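=== How it folds ===
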Amino acid sequence: MEGRVLQHAGACARLPHSGGACIGPVVTSAMNPIVVIPARMASTRLPGKPLADICGRAMILRVLDAAMAENAGPVLVAAGDPEIAEAVEAGGGRAVLTDPKLASGSDRVLAAVKAADPDGAHDAVVNLQGDLPWLPAGTLRAALDALAADSEADIATLAVEDAARAAADNPNVVKAVLAARAGLPARALYFTRAAAPWGEGPLWKHVGIYAYRRAALERFCALPPSALEQRERLEQLRALEAGMTIVAAPLDAVPDGVDTPEDLERARARFATRTSAADT
C-alpha cells in the first residue's frame, strides 16, 4: 500500500444538495492510509460487545472482515483488553494492546498507530468503530477520497441525507450541519443532537467514521476536551472548536451499528440471511 493513489475508476464527486449529480471526477493525491479499529470490553449497554458472537464469528472479527473488504489500507485493531487482542490474532488479524486507561477510542487509535508504525510511514489514519460489522461498499474509500481532495482538510467524515427529517427529534442521531462547496467535499460547520439546521430542507445524519491526516490525529488527541464537546457529548466538536477543518462525504446508507442486545440480534439476522443466500 506504499504511496497508494486514492483514485478509483468511475469515482465521481457529489455534494450535498447537488441532487446526486456528478460535479466531476474525484481527484486525490498519493496517501498511505492505515485503518484502525478501537475496541474495548467495557460497554454500558452491551458488555463484552467485541466478542459477541455473530453467526460463528466474534463481532470484532466481523468488523475486521468488513474493513479488509474495503481495500483501503492495512487494518489494525487497537485492543483495550487482552482477550480482544487474542481473539483478533487467533482470527487472522493484527492487534495492538493499548492502555485500558486511555480516555477514548481516538486515543487508542493513536497509541496503536504509534506502536505499529513508529516511523510514520502511514500519513492518513481511518478510525473505524468496533461495532460496525457491516459497511456499504466504498465507505472507507469515500472518507479517504474526501480527505485527499481538500488540501485544507484535517479530518474527513461521512453523512447520509435525511430528506424527510425523520430523525430530527431523535437525540441519538447526530446531525451534521454542512456547507456545500463547488468541486470540493462539503465543509462541516457543526455537529449536534438537536434538529439543525432549522427550516425547510433535509438533515444530514452523521456517520461516526473518520479519516485523519496523521498530524491532525496527533494534534486532536493532545487537545483537552472542549466546552461544546462536553455539552453535546460529541468528541468531534473538540476539533471544530480548536479551528480544525472537517469535511464530509455523502453516503447512501447508514452502516448498522451494534449498541444494544436488539441491535445484536438484527446483526445476527443480517449475517444469517447473507450466509443462507451464499449457500443457495
